[in-house]
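Hi U.,

Before I forget, here's the chain from the pilot set. I'm dumping it here mostly so it's searchable later in email.
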Amino acid sequence: MAKAARKYDILYWPAAKRDLKKLKNNKTVLASIDKSIVALATNPRPPGAIQLEGGTSYRKRDGEYRILYDIDDDARTVTIARIRDRKEVYKP
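Structure:
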């Protein structure tokens, strides 16, 4: 029997929490994003996730939204940085 991989803890930056609050009226999008974030706990580098310049940051697509997050393998954490519409996520 294969040993189950240890899960990663999901943490949120304050900006990511604000992004989620802005989506509270769009239940369909919020449910999809929530499902994607929960899946990162078991596989923080899923197919389609792209590593951003700098090393530990990644981007995961979820429809028209992008989830930006950092992975700390030593601490077994995934820290969600931003959840934004694709048109706005990379603007300074």
